[in-house]
């Protein structure tokens, strides 16, 4: 395998599948199956999961919710998704631990790096939930932070698009895909892969990102094996 320890970022939005809200059990199982396969191949998997399928602080604020409270709601949403993924993985006999960036035992154990690394080394899937634990951040920033902390070889950003394009391929049919792109070029072209805080953390700490389509079964394993699907973002 090309990578031994990875930080996998899954967006909350992709969990809702075709439903438009909440958690689609079929999509959840698809993800869990791919993760199980990765673990069976000996890859250490840390996962940061988003919460956009349930609540986002920023969109809440535009409807009159207090931003600070809304962000806390968003972080709790990521814990709900984390628990859903944990139960799907455990149903497949994959040992999984949920760590939370906000203290809330017994829902999950309070995060610290040694605990996360120890569990990864034992072959457990570690779900790092509640983002960074702070408002005004996103789970993309949470995955940059946790990826750096757990010393992941790479951040794998699973999305519904198969990589980084010159323009939004869903809007511009002439857009072309990059196999590889530097962080500087991402800034220069104003490409929106993740928010700038998250991107800059990866750049400054030399954490490469692979953006790939996680909704096609088997793709996670292909990326782990180093197959050229998706786009690699690096210094
Ligand atoms: N959030 C936060 N701090 C964090 C991570 C997340 O306040 O460190 C909140 C924020 O309101 C965000 C929501 O949790 O909108 C859900 O996360 P995100 O939008 O990143 O989820 P995704 O887009 O991946 O589904």
From TrEMBL:
ATP binds at residues 9-12, 52, 56, 159, 165, 168. Keywords: Allosteric enzyme, ATP-binding, Cytoplasm, Kinase, Nucleotide-binding, Pyrimidine biosynthesis, Transferase. GO terms for cellular component: cytoplasm. GO terms for molecular function: ATP binding; UMP kinase activity. It is found in: Cytoplasm. SUPFAM superfamilies: Carbamate kinase-like. InterPro entries: AceGlu_kinase-like_sf, Asp/Glu/Uridylate_kinase, Uridylate_kinase, Uridylate_kinase_bac. It holds the Pfam family AA_kinase. It is an enzyme of class 2 (transferase). Pathway: Pyrimidine metabolism; CTP biosynthesis via de novo pathway; UDP from UMP (UMPK route): step 1/1. Residues 4-213 form the Aspartate/glutamate/uridylate kinase domain. Residues 17-22 are annotated as: Involved in allosteric activation by GTP. Its EC number is 2.7.4.22. Belongs to the UMP kinase family. Catalyzes the reversible phosphorylation of UMP to UDP. Homohexamer. PANTHER family: URIDYLATE KINASE, URIDYLATE KINASE PUMPKIN, CHLOROPLASTIC. This is Uridylate kinase. It comes from Carboxylicivirga sediminis.
């Amino acid at each position: 395998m090309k990578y031994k320890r990875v930080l996998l970022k899954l967006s909350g939005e992709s969990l809702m599948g075709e439903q438009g809200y909440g958690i689609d059990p079929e999509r959840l199982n698809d993800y869990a199956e791919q993760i199980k396969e990765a673990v069976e191949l000996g890859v250490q998997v840390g996962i940061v999961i988003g919460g956009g399928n349930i609540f986002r602080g920023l969109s809440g604020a535009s409807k009159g919710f207090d931003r600070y409270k809304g962000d806390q709601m968003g972080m709790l949403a990521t814990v709900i998704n984390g628990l859903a993924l944990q139960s799907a993985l455990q149903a497949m006999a994959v040992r999984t631990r949920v760590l939370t960036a906000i203290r809330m035992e017994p829902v999950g154990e309070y995060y610290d790096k040694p605990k996360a690394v120890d569990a990864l080394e034992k072959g457990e899937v570690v779900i790092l939930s509640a983002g960074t634990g702070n408002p005004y951040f996103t789970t993309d920033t949470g995955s940059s932070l946790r990826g750096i902390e757990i010393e992941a070889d790479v951040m794998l950003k699973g999305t519904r698009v198969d990589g980084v394009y010159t323009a939004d391929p869903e809007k511009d049919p002439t857009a072309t895909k990059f196999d590889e792109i530097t962080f500087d070029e991402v800034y220069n072209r104003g490409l929106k892969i993740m928010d700038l805080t998250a991107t800059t953390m990866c750049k400054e700490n030399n954490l490469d990102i692979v953006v790939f389509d996680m909704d096609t079964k088997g793709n996670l394993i292909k990326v782990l094996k180093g197959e050229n699907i998706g786009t690699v973002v690096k210094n």
